Amino acid sequence: MTMGHDVGPIAEKQRARGLIVAIDGPAGVGKSTVAKLLASRLGYLYLDTGALYRATAWAVIESGLDTADAKGVEALLPTLSLHMQFHQGVATVFVNGRDVSGDLRTPEVSAAASVVSAISAVRAWLLPIQRQIGQGGAVVAEGRDMGTKVFASADVKFFLEADPTVRAQRRHRELVAAGHSGGLEKTSADLTRRDTRDRSRSIAPLVPAEDARFIDTSTLSIAEVVDQMMAVVAAKL
User: Fold this and answer.
1) Are 150 and 52 spatial neighbours (Cβ–Cβ below 8 Å)?
2) What is this structure's pTM?
3) Which fold has domain 2-218?
4) Opening angle at CA 212, ends 206 and 217, nearest 5
5) 3-class SS letters over 156-188
6) pLDDT digits (tens, 9 = 90+) for 201-210
7) Domain residues of the chain, as ranges?
8) Contacts for 100-103 with beta carbons within 8 Å, 24 or more apart?
9) How far apart are CA 209 and CA 128, in angstroms?
10) Separation between Cα atoms, residue 203 and residue 205, nearest integer Å
11) Helix (H) or strand (E) holding 82
């Protein structure tokens, strides 16, 4: 098993003595979009931890294993080389040397990632790489257990939420834009199932950290959410 990440000289320079900002929340609240923009405005590294789980899920699907087969998935992990390479704050994800970045947002991989992420061995396997990337600070880390588990001592924590209908509409637009078929009702049902798994799993469930700043993005624009975050982060700088 090998895991690693490359950080170019630009990113290394930017990361000097920065904060760790943790952003959690369910699918469809705009986490990825606002996290990328926040990282860009701060000159920080953007860490999409969901991409790591999606890459693992992609590998499980490719292997032909049932994603719910915890023992089978655990046995697969030592055969995988998961690597994140950063260029100007943008990550490319490799599994066994193959760039899988473009395959990670499909409905199939999304559903599989939610199942695989509930396997304790997978979470334990991915935890070191997440912490390794974030340990230098100056990082915006986005996921589902950033503020409660991975970076429990993060300098700033946010938890994003939104009305379920709004979330389903946003996710559906993303899928359509990416060329994936499927109606809004299916997208909504998929989100509901994923929410249930993420919020009810016994290991690192999706819950707000006690010291997280809550933001409801239902009626806010992307810029408004980022502006709110910037105000909170600026007070810590």
Assistant:
1) no
2) 0.81
3) Rossmann fold (3.40.50)
4) 75
5) EEEEEECCHHHHHHHHHHHHHHCCCCCCHHHHH
6) 777 788 999 9
7) 2-218
8) 100/55, 100/58, 101/51, 103/58
9) 20
10) 6
11) strand 81-87
